[in-house]
Amino acid sequence: MSEEPVLIQERRGSVVCATMNRPHALNALDAALRAQLNLFWQQFRDDPELRVAIITGAGGRAFTTGRDLKETARLNAKGERPAYELEGAYGYPGEYVLGKPVIAAVDGYCLAAGLLLALTSDIRIASDRSRFGNPQVTRGRGTRVPYELARVGVAHATVMDMTLSGEPIDAAQALQAGLVSRVVAPEQLMPTAWALAEKISGNSPTVVTGIKRAYEMGVFELPMNEARRVWANVTGGMMSSQTADSIEGARSFAQKRSADFAS
């Protein structure tokens, strides 16, 4: 009997969903899964027909609990390191200039490197049974999660509490902290993720790509005056009223119909 793939893909039009499929290990990120994630992000980036990606985990117990520490322990015992460490290719969407948005649909535990994967996605939605945490401090492992939490707008006190205590927060706390934008019942998580992805996919590609480009180039983190100065150039001219999308938007509004963006 052949083994199930560690990453399952489903494509609907211009949206693709990748499901991490190691439920027996709470979708822990071993070398094989990380390799498939790296390949997935590259394919998503390079496919002109795809506009939005969803990343989620199988099983209902975990999005992913992060690094597969059992695999790491086995390698450490032999004096070895995992290939993804040596290559610096960890499987996070933030490692790539995608130019397209990524939605993390979180159900269950989202911990450590799994939290980092979610944080480097653009939008995070969660089921109400989800828990978010950074327990590396309890295992002596370094982490850049504190920076990433602060970067997405989580308050300093919450960042320090999560990363110094190692204790997780629940979905309601994550929503209050701005870590996620929506919390839904578990059975509504994937329908919500697909509906949001399809909504974004149907919006102006020029504007969606422009906003994503600005984010990837760090414009959101610049001082206000500097960000305003470079915004138009960085976002690829989306501010122009003469782009094909802008012209179609005005025309469709005047004709009282939905816009049909061809770009």
TrEMBL record:
<protein>
    <submittedName>
        <fullName>Enoyl-CoA hydratase/isomerase family protein</fullName>
    </submittedName>
</protein>
<dbReference type="InterPro" id="IPR001753">
    <property type="entry name" value="Enoyl-CoA_hydra/iso"/>
</dbReference>
<dbReference type="GO" id="GO:0016853">
    <property type="term" value="F:isomerase activity"/>
</dbReference>
<comment type="similarity">
    <text>Belongs to the enoyl-CoA hydratase/isomerase family.</text>
</comment>
<dbReference type="Pfam" id="PF00378">
    <property type="entry name" value="ECH_1"/>
</dbReference>
<dbReference type="InterPro" id="IPR018376">
    <property type="entry name" value="Enoyl-CoA_hyd/isom_CS"/>
</dbReference>
<keyword id="KW-0413">Isomerase</keyword>
<dbReference type="GO" id="GO:0006635">
    <property type="term" value="P:fatty acid beta-oxidation"/>
</dbReference>
<dbReference type="InterPro" id="IPR029045">
    <property type="entry name" value="ClpP/crotonase-like_dom_sf"/>
</dbReference>
